[in-house]
Design a protein that fits this description.
31% of the residues lie in helices and 19% in strands. It is α/β, with parallel strands linked by helices and 221 residues long. The chain binds zinc ion (ZN) (2 copies).
Length: 221
Amino acid sequence: MLNSIFPNACENCGELFFFKTQNYFCDKCLSLIKHQKTFYCRSCGDGVTNCQRCLSNRFFKDIQVYTKYSPPISKIIHELKFNKVKTMSKIISNIIADDFKRFIKTKNITKVIYIPQSKKLEKSRGYNHLKEILVELVPEFMIFEGIKKIKETRMQMNLSKEERETNLIGAFDIEENADFKNQNVLIFDDVLTTGSTIREIFKLIKDRHINNIYGYIITKS
Ligand SMILES: [Zn+2]
Ligand SMILES: [Zn+2]
C-alpha cells in the first residue's frame, strides 16, 4: 500500500515514479528497451561477423538475439538472477514477447529447452529464471525438461574466452527417457557472449534425430 502513496526511485535512472505492477524500474526506462541489431555468428553464436569456425561446419540452423546486454535490461536480468526478484521475469517476457513468438512461429518450433542450472543453485535461487520467463511465452507442453546440469561450474561471465570453452565440458546431460525425434528444438538463454553455453547443449542433443536446432538469446554482451 505504501508504494502507491510514496514514489520509488527507479533502479536504472534514479527518477522517482509511482508503483504500478513493480517498483524497480520506471515505465520510461522500460519503454527504451527495443529490439536491437547485434553482431554475432548466427550459426555458432560467437561474437564475430565472418566466422571461420562455421565455414565448413554449421552448428545452429539460426540464432536470434533480441538486444544488447546493457542497462536497463542487463539490470532487470540481474535482479531476476541474483536478487531473487521473481516478478522481473514478467517484465522480460513482455519485452521480448512479439519477437520471440514470431521466431517460434516462422521456424515452426515444437520444443524449447532452457539452460538448466545445478540443483544446488536452483535451490538457493528458488527457481530457474529462464523457465520463469518461458512459461509466460509458450504453452507448458512445449517446454522440454530433458536436460540436466550434472556438474557445478564457475560463472561463465567471470571467465576468459578459453576458460569458457572448457568450464562447461561435461556439465550437462540428457535425461534417460528424453525424446527429441523429429522436433524443431529451440535453445533459450539470457546472455550470449562466445556462444559456448548454447553450443554445449547443441553438441549434447545433435545426434538425437532432431529436425532442426535453433537458438534464442535475450541479450548479447
Ligand atoms: Zn527509470
Ligand atoms: Zn560461427
